[in-house]
Design goal:
Shape: elongated
Number of helices: 6
Number of strands: 9
Strand content: 25-35%
Oligomer: single chain
Length: 227
């Protein structure tokens, strides 16, 4: 509405000046300048608006899962002269890889979480009341994005590595020497657990759980060494 009012004041003001009605014409042109000032304030400073936040939480799945070790890929991507960081995961139950680029957004990784998810926080503008929304319609849209923050919450089973590091870890894990070391580490961890609690040896389910945990730990150490 303010844009239309500015145009109307300008046109009518000029017409009145040509008709020698100087006082009224100048008054309308001053009104036009005042309207322009408010338009500039709204477009540059978002005058008449306030910010609000919406939050969306999405469960995530790893790009790869190696014996219980979940992988989030982090890779540098160059666009022109600017270098960005890309983060890749999957949505839970889906095979497509989802990539987030830290372009015009803040991306944070929290590796001390009990849960694994991606939290997207959108900070948007909205007009403070109906009158301001009507006046500034067409300048700043209600719901326009101000900034975006994305946080990856990862439990201890996750590893944040590059594609080349993942490839290298996969190669190392296939080496006989590495496999022998992993096997020995698993046996040592299992024996240590049994020594502390001898009844575990008589419970196949618990014993399998301990073995799997030890295997995940041993493989995770190899992945970390590839960083």
């Amino acid at each position: 509405m303010l844009i239309i009012l500015t145009i109307v004041l300008a046109v009518v003001g000029v017409i009145l000046l040509f008709k020698k009605q100087h006082i009224l014409g100048i008054t309308l042109l001053i009104g036009m300048l005042i309207c322009q000032a408010f338009i500039i304030l709204d477009s540059s400073q978002h005058y008449g608006t306030s910010k609000y936040t919406t939050t969306q939480t999405e469960q995530i799945a790893p790009v790869a899962n190696i014996k219980g070790n979940k992988i989030l890929i982090k890779e540098k991507i160059k666009q022109g002269k600017t270098e960005y960081q890309a983060y890749a995961t999957k949505s839970l139950g889906k095979s497509e890889i989802q990539t987030v680029l830290n372009k015009q957004k803040i991306v944070t990784i929290n590796q001390n979480s009990k849960y694994s998810n991606k939290v997207t926080k959108n900070i948007k503008y909205r007009y403070n009341d109906t009158l301001q929304k009507l006046l500034f319609s067409g300048i700043t849209n209600s719901g326009q994005l101000s900034s975006q923050e994305i946080t990856y919450n990862l439990d201890p089973a996750w590893h944040v590595i590059t594609k080349s590091q993942l490839k290298h870890a996969g190669k190392v894990l296939k080496e006989p020497k590495t496999q022998s070391t992993i096997k020995q580490n698993v046996e040592n961890d299992v024996q240590s657990e049994i020594k502390q609690n001898p009844t575990l040896a008589k419970n196949p389910t618990n014993l399998k759980r301990i073995e799997d945990k030890a295997l995940t730990k041993a493989v995770g150490n190899v992945i970390d060494s590839a960083k």
